[in-house]
Amino acid sequence: MEKSSSSASLESLNIAQTFFTPIHQATPPSPTKHHTKISVIGVGNVGMAIAQTILTQDLVDELALVDSNPNKLRGEMLDLQHAAAFLPRTKILASVDYAVTAGSDLCIVTAGARQIARESRLNLLQRNLELFRMIIPPLAKNSPDGILLVVSNPVDVLTFVAWKLSGFSSNRVIGSGTNLDSSRFRFLIADHLDVNAQDVQAYIVGEHGDSSVALWSSISVGGVPVLSFLDKQAIKYEKETLENIHKAVIQGAYEVINLKGYTSWAIGYSVASLARSILRNQRKIHPVSILAKNFYGIDGEVFLSLPAQLGRAGVLGVTNAHLTDEEMQQLRDSAKTIMEFQTQLGL
């Protein structure tokens, strides 16, 4: 993707030495200063929305793009590079060769096979499995100490696939899961109550899909638990109203896809928020797809979304949120739904 690397680097070095007068007896940079690098695999609408958001939020020193389409890849790289004067300084690389991802702190996988008309979900999964066999091993080889963040759908099963193919410990393999679903959930609740969405604490957990679970019992606004407050004040609320809000969350992505053909900006911001929490060691709580075995009574190696604390080591822990018996059963049913597809992959 780059022109004659040796001659180009020599040329720029000579110009730099002419342009600047060096500082004599300067000490080298601090060895504790960390050079951060993110690689994004797949430069479709989602991949580029993520890359663009990461750049504008000044999250990394180096961004590497990988895709199987060399022309689209080079075009996207150049388009971003041409915006350099308006962005924080970030080195942008692109290649069809996974060697460009070497030394990444975080590898974000957005590549995935698209569903063909009347194609079964299992057949789509099998095609994505073959694609991930080409993607995950070279990522793990080139960044053995990095973290994998899977965005490709169906995200829960593919995060499990990435874990198996990478050989990484489970805390370093994460799926974007219901992080965006929960953002939609918070927006709808805030809109319903006429408050700021940032003051709403609410989670969607389980599958990123139709069997997702809304944790109504743990919703709070400004620190006030909503449902228990309504009960104490003897204020009636319809369960149907709550269910309609959850349905709107599930249908949110479908509506955007029907209107504009794809989703991009919201998932771009969602994944950038995960990248920030991980790389900046924010220790923030995000509902993301993680290995759920032994949490909330879930048995078996299944990835689904739970409220997890994220930092430089990836998943640091899972919150011990109180779930009602109904929510606990719904979460286990969601795990069962994912397992039914997962077991058919033969991994």
In sequence order, what are the helices and strands, one letter per element? HEHEHEEHEHEHEEEEEHHHEEEH
Give helix % range: 40-55%
Q: Considering the protein shown, what is the CATH homologous superfamily of the largest domain? A: Lactate dehydrogenase/glycoside hydrolase, family 4, C-terminal
Radius of gyration, taken over Cα atoms and rounded to an integer in Å: 22 Å
Strand order of the largest sheet: 3-2-1-4-5-6
Structure classification:
alpha/beta
List the defining traits of the structure above.
L-2-Hydroxyisocaproate Dehydrogenase, Chain A, domain 2, single chain, alpha/beta, L-lactate dehydrogenase (NAD+) activity, 10 helices, disordered N terminus, 3-stranded antiparallel beta sheet, Rossmann fold, 347 residues, 6-stranded parallel beta sheet, 2 domains, L-lactate_DH
What does this structure look like?
This protein is α/β, with parallel strands linked by helices. It folds into two domains: 32-175, NAD(P)-binding Rossmann-like Domain (Rossmann fold, 3-Layer(aba) Sandwich); 179-345, L-2-Hydroxyisocaproate Dehydrogenase, Chain A, domain 2 (Alpha-Beta Complex). The protein has helices spanning 5-19, 45-56, 70-81, 121-142, 155-166, 179-193, 226-232, 239-260, 265-279, 325-342; strands at residues 37-41, 62-66, 91-95, 106-109, 147-150, 173-175, 200-201, 204-205, 213-214, 220-221, 224-225, 284-291, 303-311, 314-318. The strands form four sheets. Strands 3-2-1-4-5-6 form a six-stranded parallel β-sheet, sandwiched between helices. A three-stranded antiparallel β-sheet has the order 7-10-11. The two termini are 35 Å apart. The relative contact order is 0.12. Belongs to the LDH/MDH superfamily. LDH family.
